[in-house]
């Protein structure tokens, strides 16, 4: 058998030369931490150290930093599970919160 990648499908060639497409469910997500930076959050520009991750879907910060920055937060009750199986509580979500990166780029949503 030989496999050739076709988007989210794989083409499988059998011994008789007949081909068929099979759907391969993709469950993996790769991210690459790029290093630590100093950023500012909230209207008061509270300084925090942040790990830059090119595959992030959420910006996560400790609850104590939320409190120091005076950021309003909507309570959530959920857990986040990491690649090693460790899980941690997510206690709130802040939407449209200003996060200023050293390059001057802004992000609009932060969760902790």
TrEMBL record:
It comes from the Eukaryota. One of its GO terms (biological process) is proteolysis. Residues 48-85 form the Peptidase A2 domain. GO terms for molecular function: aspartic-type endopeptidase activity. Keywords: Hydrolase. This is Peptidase A2 domain-containing protein. It comes from Austropuccinia psidii MF-1.
């Amino acid at each position: 058998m030989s496999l050739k990648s076709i988007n989210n499908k794989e083409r499988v060639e059998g011994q008789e030369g007949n081909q068929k497409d099979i759907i391969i469910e993709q469950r993996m997500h790769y991210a690459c931490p790029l290093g630590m930076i100093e950023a500012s959050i909230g209207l008061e520009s509270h300084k925090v150290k942040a790990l830059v991750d090119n595959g992030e879907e959420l910006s996560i910060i400790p609850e104590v930093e939320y409190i120091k920055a005076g950021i309003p937060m909507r309570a959530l009750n959920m857990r986040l599970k990491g690649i090693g199986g460790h899980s941690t509580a997510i206690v709130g979500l802040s939407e449209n919160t200003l996060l200023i990166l050293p390059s001057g780029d802004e992000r609009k949503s932060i969760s902790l």
